[in-house]
What we know:
The structure holds two protein chains of two kinds.
Chain A: H1 5-8, H2 11-28, H3 37-61, E1 65-73, E2 81-87, H4 89-114, H5 121-140, H6 144-162, H7 170-200, H8 211-219, H9 236-254, H10 263-266, H11 272-280, H12 283-293, H13 295-298, H14 302-324, H15 329-349, H16 353-380, H17 398-412, H18 418-434, H19 438-466, H20 473-476, H21 483-498, H22 505-511, H23 517-522, H24 525-530, H25 534-544, H26 556-582, H27 596-602, H28 607-655, H29 660-682
Antiparallel strand pairs in A: 1-2
Chain B: H1 2-7, H2 9-27, H3 34-58, E1 65-67, E2 72-74, H4 76-99, H5 106-125, H6 129-147, H7 154-185, H8 190-203, H9 205-223, H10 231-238, H11 241-266, H12 269-272, H13 281-301, H14 306-326, H15 335-364, H16 377-380, H17 382-396, H18 402-416, H19 420-445, H20 460-494
Antiparallel strand pairs in B: 1-2
Helix pairs in contact in B: 2-3, 2-5, 3-4, 3-5, 4-5, 4-11, 4-15, 4-20, 5-6, 5-11, 6-7, 6-11, 7-8, 7-9, 7-10, 8-9, 9-11, 9-13, 10-11, 10-14, 11-14, 11-15, 13-14, 13-19, 14-15, 14-18, 14-19, 15-17, 15-18, 15-20, 17-19, 17-20, 18-19, 18-20
Amino acid sequence: MVTVAGIYAYAPAIAVLPFVSFLVALLVGRWLPRKGALSGILATLGSLGLSVAMVGHLVLTGEGYDETMYTFVETAETFDLTFGLLIDPLSAAMLVIVSFIAVLVHVFSLGYMNDEDEPGLPRYYAGLGLFTASMLAFVLSSNLLMAFFFFELVGLCSYLLIGHWFREEGPPSGAKKAFLVTRFGDYFFLVGVVGVLATFKTAGFAGENGFPAVAERVLSPEASAEVAVDTFGFAPETWFAVLGLLVLGGVLGKSAQFPFHTWLPDAMEGPTPVSALIHAATMVAAGVFLVARMYGFYALLPTVLAIIAFTGGFTALFAATMAVVKNEIKQVLAYSTISQYGYMMLALGAGGYVAAFFHLTTHAMFKALLFLGAGSVIIAMHHEEDMWLMGGLKDEMRVTYLTFLAGSLALAGIFPFAGFWSKDEVLFEALAHGLESPLLLGGYLMGLAAVFVTAVYTVRMVLLTFHGDPRSDLAADPEAVRWNVKLPLSALGVLAVVAGFLNPVPIQTLTGVHVEFLHDFLDNAASEELLTSAHHYGDLTKEFAGYSTGTVAGGETATVLISAGLSLGLAVAGAVVALRLYGGADPARHTEKLGGLRTLLMHNYYQDEYQVWLAEGLTLGVARAADAFDRGVVDGAVDKVSSVSLLSGYGLRRLQTGIVTNYAALISLSVLALLVAFAAMGGWF
Amino acid sequence: MSDHWLLLSPAGAFVVAAMALFVIDAADPEGTNGTLLSAVASAGGLVAAVASGGLLLSGAATPGVELFDGQLVVDGMSLIFTFIFGSVTALVSLASLDYVRGLPHKAKYYLLVLLAATGMSLMASANSLAVVFVALELSSLPSYALVSYLKTNRGSVEAGLKYFLVGALSSSILVYGISLVYAATGSLLFADVAAGVGRAAADYPGVLGIGVLMIVGGFAFKTAAAPFHFWAPDAYEGSPAPVSAFLSSASKAAGFVVAFRVFTVAFPIGEIAGETYAVDWVLAFTVLAVVTMTVGNFAAATQENVKRMLAYSSVGHAGYALIGLAALTGVGSGATALGASMLHLLVYGFMNTGAFLFVALAEHWELGRTFEDYNGLAREAPLACVAMTVFMFSLAGLPVGGGFLSKYFLVVGAVGAGVWWLGAVLAINSALSLFYYSRVVRAMWIEEPDDSRDIESYPSALYAAVIGAAVVTVLLLPGLAVFDVAAFDAAAALV
């Protein structure tokens, strides 16, 4: 490992650089010409460069890195608590995604924040820096506890950034909601971390000594007594499933999966570049990444996998339906994010580790693109977000329109845009495994249905925003955007078209050309050594969860084709429906016709209502009762005690007369009383 | 033999310093050089503290070593308490430099402090009832004189007289009790008393019982436990504040150490209140503990005068420390509670001394005596007020100082001994104590000063003593770990 240490010695800098930019923006940002933007761009560029170098090094040498950097609690008997770095294909690829998006978001912020003379710029760039640093450190984490720390920091930063415009009414409320809802999930996560540490005496992710490997040895049929772990009286399967579900609580919160998805639409109150960062690469991605990071553990637990898959599929469909009726462009995108992360969860639950990460990658590209595009539109519209006041922007905003269109087609899953390939692979995995494990089939069907809905709302969004006649003065005369907006859009636009060719499985199946680049990368020798390789996970799901690949219509090729055809067909059908409904110069509000259903959808299935009730009706009620108890009974008792005490204190004070003969008399009498009492008790006389 | 002299070196340090003061006083009767006197006395205390601390941590006195045919014993407990006496003596002597600067007979003042400290260190090592009585008188007689040191101050003289009269009564009760125990068991040495106590309980339960209860009374006087506490508020209020600090911390601890040893060694509860029942002194101490805690805290809550409040709070703390004896119920080992009592007295030695020295500082500035007179003091003397805040909160048992931990151990010990309700009484009383302790803090930090006061000088020695005590109090929160093993071992060696 000595030779390898060369490049990996610089790995901490990936997270440290943005942290430095955080400090710079925080401490001296107000005196800098761009208020911290330039240092942020430089720092994230540095991180990106180093991340790419890590990927290159992994590809060339096939040697990963898993070392403890710092032990902050050392114990003799139990286990140490440490910080460490884990660089394997998964984390290296994620580093590239995160730092890449972070660079673009920083550049875009020049246009969105600086050019618009927004207040609090140093605070904003400090937040971005810390956000990026936390996420990168989270990705680099070599153990679950460290991951938890940075997971929480990510949550904190999102709170700070969503609430950036804290003088307005909406942003602080949205920030609080994001914080509280994700914190609710993180509570389970924390318990899970403690449980993992208590059970396995380690929280390491990778290698023979990582907790997934230990769990595997415990559960494997030829388990020997020596790998016994403390499962607190449960069967190991049950206990591990409990741990997996506890950690999953944090994942569902961060990745905005049902029923914790409610924070994400409200988080739209933050600046749009922040939304892009949250949705594409950091906050929301953290949850899914965590499942992928400890996939060796989840792959052992069929029940948890089924729950993940079902939740994912359900969330994909559920969120997509809500996106159909939304009128604000960012709201549509918010629900689409929830829905797309649902696909990733579906893939993970269905054993499609590569598919999930593939979709994470493409989604990061096209969702960042869509948000930045929306940001560009919002700049042009002077911060008006209602799509019904837009229309006809495609001629005025050529670059934005074309890139946004590319991103939308990717989102809708239209061939050959990025989203098509990854979504298709997700659905293929769900189908192939679902044929043999019927539990997954439900998730698959919901995911499939969501394809149609996704196409409908995506195309509706594009049509309402860019096509038809301008429906307001603002839309007729949009403000021009500059290079710092167009550059990130163009970069992402290209990627939204081509990113799918990272792993186009159908092409490989049809032509036999080996083009599974991402799969090969995730199966790299380095991951082999660290036990985090894709095919190791495949073996685990096969052995422990009983996943096997089924086929329809006689053969794998046919299955691939049918799956791809089905999803493409549904996507096209959805697009056509939306085109017919909203295609004209002056589209009608067709969702009005949905009647009661629309009300239900506009109210997001009353999810917010019941959660608000949980918070205000139930929790507040309980809190009030506790408060009343505290004031009435506890404080009341204390007050009574003190008033009684004071009263008796004054009585006692009167005993202290200051006359020494009284004291002598009292002492003698007390001794006498004591003597008489004990004499009676002891029967002395 | 040389070892033995080494083991007595803490007491020796007091004696040597006292002799040195005799010499200085003889050479220079007017005693003009206050700094030298204070330095000698402080050095004596410091050497005693360091020597006993060193002996304690080196383990030279485990198991206990008997000297002079068993008249004295040096063990973990005696060293812990000698450490307390030495520390308090050093703090008080240092602070007195400023307090008695302009007063006559300074040499005698320091001399009396050191002689009292010598008596206390002998109390800690006393292993026979005769030595107990002599040592107790050696510590008491200088104390009476110290209380009335301000000869022209009526309050001081009155306080000294009251203290002396109540002390004389208590001493007579004690010595009568000793004589009855001697009559019943035929010995004064603790070991022989313990050997004879079983037969005595069977043959003369009344004589032995009365004797034991009277000894309880004698020690209750020294520890200022109810109902022998009447002298304490008057004496503490009237005497010079450093003397109050000395009496309420060191003298009280001395009463406790001798009580711990006499009752655990000489009157094993199994012999005296087991199958042959003479007197259940654990029950007696339980009653005393509850009454003392409650009386002290309740009375403290109604005081207007800070020094008097501290005096009553000191009574309350005696009640807490009595739990160490009240928890020797035979359920569990009882060593936890007893060790916790020692730790509490150790922490108390610093936080209570510091609090009284703060009052000395206030008297030096002639601020006045009531809570209101302290209003807004934090503006002029922030550092001293921080120290006082630490003392107050630590006395109340908040986790800013060692007082939190020692109270915690007391509760744990009480629960472990099956007398959880004693722990509950302690908790309730501590909650009440927070009320009057926080009055001081509120006055200093929150209230507006009534009129402009002028603090001209900041007496450096007094300040150093106050700050030093505060630093040790805070350090004892993590640092109690240094002593807790020793204290629990010492307690386990007794029970």
